[in-house]
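Subgroup meeting minutes
Present: P.N., E.W., G.H.
Scribe: E.W.

1. P.N. recapped why we're keeping a running log of single-chain structure predictions: easier to compare across weeks, and new members can see raw inputs and outputs side by side.
2. G.H. added today's entry (137 aa).
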Amino acid sequence: MSKVIACIDGSSSAGAVCDAAAWAARQLQAPLVLLHVLEKTEQPVKGDLSGNIGLGTREHLLAEMVELEEQRSRIALEHGKHMLEEAFQRSRSVYDGGIDTIQKHGSVLETVLDLQHESRLLVMGRQGECMKTLPGA
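Output recorded in log:
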């Protein structure tokens, strides 16, 4: 069965994406899928600081960095679940058909390509969550 897939993120257009996807699902009498993708963010290290600190201190800092990254990942996962729940509730007020939520790790492009065989319509915002911090966005 062909589904309407709505890509949800933390951007200001997420509400409009939910509304448009729920409307389309109702018109097409198709199941609605709310999709949130957790993308890996690469944060480059600025400069080589390995010679500036002692060996024991460096190992401690690396362990602390790993712990912070794990915390960041857990928080991002929980935040995504809350976004999907809010999107579900918002969509439910417009569309009373089948609504599923999916949260995946990876890239949005690869995830959408993986789901293309079961999608009839894909609804995305004009710009993603990361675009809201750029000048002029």
